[in-house]
Write a structure and sequence with these properties.
Length: 358
């Protein structure tokens, strides 16, 4: 079975005869410069192809399974993978906050979210905005996914013992202004990243948490001291992706009143205004799903005085989020409902993309 992930959901696209599996897997491994004789261990590789007059990279991964090898190709399209921050789909308030974080001479900026939420795209967009001749920008990645002109990019090499933390210590001696650490995975990387932010560097990194406030708890759980994190952290960008209604089969209708009772609709819908909602009826262009393409959904935690005081006393994520909301933070779910009222997506898609209890 050949399946493709379209707009975040798997869809069957082709069935191969069983006897072709080994031949197809071997051909892909040859193109990706992997060992075709090794079928008992997982392998990773990459290949590039020119498709429709543009260069497209593929990251290839193979693992042994019960009936042969499973091969997955991740498509890295340079044309769509790197985009300016204005094209991320952020509401104006969130975009202004992100710009303010990036304008700081030093500090820690975190992009967080589950796997496949578009964190790398946001980090690269931030780097693109920062990469000027006046700044020395360095990255530590695993692996390097896209090349950015004017940025010195390095990759970890686990086989050689070159880790995130080890590379980070080394590149601090290269006089960087901006450092992008692909991901904080351990206590050592967390500690060195915070230390770098405190010593005059702007550090961008990512974490795997569902909410912005949970990123603070994650760093504290890694052993970062509250008195170091509070002055270092500038802000946290939490994100998720939602499917956009197909423009070819888009239709407008009205929901029942019960949907408007949700507190996250308060303040979004103008008083006295009657909301209209959109839905995709399904057509050939969207594979009868009613959706076509995806867009980012964002929640930005600004570390203001109230949040900083809570970090200093190692408060829980719920308490930090409550304080942030009281000072103006728009949650993922609320920004999702704003997208619903703008006709971009549906209530059902927001509930699917964002935890219902968020």
């Amino acid at each position: 079975m050949v399946r493709g992930r379209v707009d975040g959901l798997l869809r069957e696209v082709h069935l191969l005869d069983g006897h072709l599996l080994n031949k197809v897997a071997s051909r892909i491994k040859v193109l990706a410069e992997m060992d075709i004789a090794e079928k008992r261990r997982p392998q990773d590789g990459r290949l590039s192809r020119v498709l429709e007059d543009r260069s497209v990279d593929f990251r290839v991964s193979s693992i042994p399974s019960l009936y042969g090898e499973s091969v997955v190709l991740r498509i890295l399209d340079r044309a769509s993978g790197i985009r300016p921050i204005e094209q991320l789909g952020m509401p104006s308030r969130e975009l202004k906050l992100l710009r303010s974080f990036l304008s700081e001479p030093s500090g820690l900026v975190i992009v967080t979210g589950p796997t496949g939420a578009g964190k790398t795209t946001t980090l690269y967009a931030a780097l693109l905005a920062l990469a000027t001749p006046e700044r020395h920008c360095l990255t530590i990645e695993d692996p390097i996914e896209y090349e950015i002109q004017g940025v010195l990019q390095t990759a970890v090499q686990h086989r050689l013992g070159v880790t995130f933390a080890g590379l980070l210590r080394s590149i601090l001696r290269h006089d960087p202004d901006v450092i992008m650490v692909g991901e904080v995975r351990d206590a050592e990387t967390a500690e060195v990243s915070v230390r770098a932010a405190l010593t005059g560097h702007l550090v961008l990194t990512s974490l795997h948490t569902e909410r912005a406030a949970h990123a603070v708890s994650a760093l504290l759980n890694f052993g970062v001291k509250p008195y170091a994190l509070a002055p270092a952290l500038r802000g946290v960008v939490a994100q998720q992706l939602f499917r956009v209604i197909c423009p070819n089969c888009k239709s407008v209708f009205e929901y029942g009143e019960r949907f408007l009772d949700d507190p996250d609709f308060e303040g979004i819908l103008k008083e006295g205004a009657k909301p209209s909602f959109s839905v995709g009826l399904g057509c050939d262009e969207c594979f009868r799903s009613g959706y076509r393409g995806r867009q980012g959904l964002f929640e930005i935690l600004e570390v203001n005085d109230a949040v900083r005081r809570l970090i200093l006393r190692a408060a829980g994520a719920e308490e930090i989020e409550k304080a942030a909301v009281e000072t103006g933070m728009m949650t993922l779910r609320r920004n999702g409902f704003r997208a619903v009222l703008e006709g971009l997506t549906t209530v059902e898609e927001v509930v699917r993309a964002v935890n219902i209890d968020s």
